[in-house]
Every structure is written in C-alpha cells, then in structure tokens.
Amino acid sequence: MLNRKVIISCAVTGATHTPSMSEYLPVTPAQIAAQSIEAAEAGAAILHLHARNPADGKPTPSPEVFRQFVPAIVEATDAVINVTTGGSTRMTLADRLAYPRLAKPEMCSLNMGSMNFSIHPIAARMQSWRYDWEKDYIEGMEDTIFRNTFKDIKSILLELGEAGTRFEFECYDVGHLYNLAHFVDQGLIKPPFFIQSVFGILGGLGADPENMTVMRSTADRLFGRENYQFSILGAGRHQMAFVTMGAIMGGNVRVGLEDSVYLSKGVKAESNAQQVRKIRRILEELSFEIATPAEARQMLGLKGADKVSF
C-alpha cells in the first residue's frame, strides 16, 4: 500500500467561503487560473473548479466566466479539469449544468443526495464583510437545502455520461453511498468509481475517525475495493489531519481553499499550492508516491483531455 499512487485533488475556490473569510481566496478569472496552475505544478493531478463573479466574488454558473480561466489552465497544465455540477445552494439544476453541458469535461463533481449544507455559524464570528451579498448568503444557509434528487442525479448521469464524462461522487453521509449503489444497480455507473467522502460539513458526517472507517467499510461492502478509488475531504480545521489518515487507510486526498482557508491552526493559506505542497510533503515523508495527471487518468478510466470542449 505504501508504494501505491495517491491522487491529490485541489478544490480551488468553491462556492461556500466568501471573500471576507480570506484575502487569498481566488475570485477573478486571472486569480483562479494562476492559483490552479500553481497547484498543478505543486502536485495536484485533479483541479476541481467553480466560477465567481469577478466584480464581487459571488458564485456564478456563467459559462462566459468559466471560459475566462479554464482554457488558460488547460494550456498551462495537463491536470484533469473537474467541473462542478454542485455550483451553490442558490443555483437551479439548469444553472449548475450550464458550463458542463458545453464543456463535456473529463470529470465533474456530483453530490449524491439532497441535504442540509451550511456554514451559517461562521456569520456570528465575522466582524465585517467586504461585499453586501456575503452576510445574507452565509446566514441564509441555515434555511437552505442543497437539492439533488434521484431524478436530478439520474439526469446528470445520463446527459454528461453520454459524452464520456466521469464523476467525483461526493458522499457526505453513509446514505449517499447507498444512493450511489442504487445507480450502479441500474447500470448507469460503471467502475472504477471515484468516491469523494466528505467529512466536517454541518449537515453531513462529522470529521471523526470512526466515521471514515464506516464509510470505507461500507464502500467495500457495496462495491468491492477493486472497483473504486476512495478519496477524503476534511472540511475546515480537520483538513490536513483527516486527509492524511485517509491516505493511510488506502485513500486519495483533496485539499484546497474551497475546503479550508487555513494552512494550519490560525494561519491562513496564502494559496492553494501551499496546501498541495504541505500534503504532498506529508505523504512523501510517509513513503507514498504522488500520482501524475496521466496516472490519475488511468486509475479513474477518464476519456482524456483531447476529448473535451474547453
């Protein structure tokens, strides 16, 4: 196990954190492109991408904004481009699919169920906001549901899957693994699966070591370990310790400013690449090898960068 390749994914900006939470959060196309390229150079084989309004950093599904940074990343790196279908809790399904439908990427993220998804307690700790939209956006999460019904998931699998797109199946709870198994049983998903287990989000599984064991053993039982790649996302302060534990348990890892704006306790990450370099150093000191983009494509059965429409 120590000689296997570990895939590092980097979630560059997301749609959860707001500009007031970190001055280092990339929001303009130029910032997202620069930080993505640097993260790939640091060792990230997969770049998980969202878009933001360059004027105020608000999450946007606009294909026009995506087109201002994705081609630059593709030109500068050979990293796998993983485009969100989650968008944000304020977007419709049509909004969330606007760019993936056009780009037909190698990989898209796919949340495996509807859920409460919130960081609203952070609002009480914020002393000031840079933009007017931020406070209502964060506080409003308390009364907002992320929607992905069985019908929503099926439509995404059918439409994007027809173009050869494969998925980062984001599983925030054990039930999401069973949702995944449901679609496997229907023949809509074929191995190898890329299961992104998410811990530490309010509304999902907590970042307790016992929960990782439950997710791993459940996935083994449902799919057989030979049929899937396990990956770990630890939100917020849980990030580095939790993903390190996940690698030791046979998983891959995800870091990035979407998942945590910190590098260590009380120290903000000044870039996505800082987090990538840190987890890479930790893993290499534990004798793990880091997968290249080409190796990640092979491990995940991706269609190849030459078959996308960026």
Automatic annotation (TrEMBL):
UniProt keyword list: Metal-binding, Transferase, Zinc
Pfam families (UniProt xref): BKACE
Organism: Paraburkholderia phytofirmans (strain DSM 17436 / LMG 22146 / PsJN)
PANTHER family linked to this entry: 3-KETO-5-AMINOHEXANOATE CLEAVAGE ENZYME, 3-KETO-5-AMINOHEXANOATE CLEAVAGE ENZYME-RELATED
Gene Ontology molecular function: 3-keto-5-aminohexanoate cleavage activity; metal ion binding
Protein's recorded name: 3-keto-5-aminohexanoate cleavage enzyme
Obligatory cofactor(s): Zn(2+)
InterPro entries, per database record: Aldolase_TIM, BKACE
